[in-house]
Amino acid sequence: MSIAVTIYYTGTDSNARKFAEEMEAGGTAARIRREEGNLRYEYFFPMADETTVLLLDCWENQEALDRHHASPMMEKIMELRVKYDLHMRVERYVSDEGGIPETDSRFIKE
């Protein structure tokens, strides 16, 4: 069972983008990607909303996510959230171990 967490960071002006840029430039995002159990850690920028950044944060299981939450990277993330005065909306998804149903897969081109 993998877990995907989507986090919408929103701030004034371009603060959310500055946050993501500092996470990348400072190496924090790269360190998170190297954590055991991390499957994906990637920022996206919604075309219609310049004040928001979307983070797709995926982990192998709850234990890996718990280790990440207890890691030193969380202190840095929280420090930057305060620095850029960001607000968050979080969604959490758990993978369907059965895979993609045939009724859905016919719409996917690989």
Largest sheet: 4 strands, antiparallel
Q: What is the count of helical runs?
A: 5
Q: How many β-strand stretches?
A: 4
Mean pLDDT over all positions: 94
From the alpha-carbon coordinates, what is the Rg to the nearest angstrom?
15 Å
Structural class by SSE content = alpha+beta
Helix content: 25-40%
Shape: globular
Can you list the strand order of the major beta sheet?
Answer: 2-3-1-4
Extract low-pLDDT stretches. none
Oligomeric organization of the protein chains:
single chain
Order of helices and strands: EHHEEHHEH
Strand content: 25-35%
Distance separating the two termini: 23 Å
Descriptive terms for the model:
globular; 110 residues; four-stranded antiparallel β-sheet; alpha+beta; 5 helices; 28% strand
How would you sum up this structure, described in words?
There is one protein chain. This protein has 5 helices and 4 strands. 14% of the residues are buried. It is 37% helix and 28% strand. The longest helix is centred in the C-terminal third of the chain and has 12 residues, at 72-83. With 110 residues, it is α+β, with helices and mostly antiparallel strands. The chain is globular, with a radius of gyration of 15 Å.
List the helices and strands and how they pair.
Elements: E1 3-10, H1 15-25, H2 28-33, E2 38-44, E3 52-59, H3 62-69, H4 72-83, E4 87-94, H5 102-105
Antiparallel strand pairs: 1-3, 1-4, 2-3
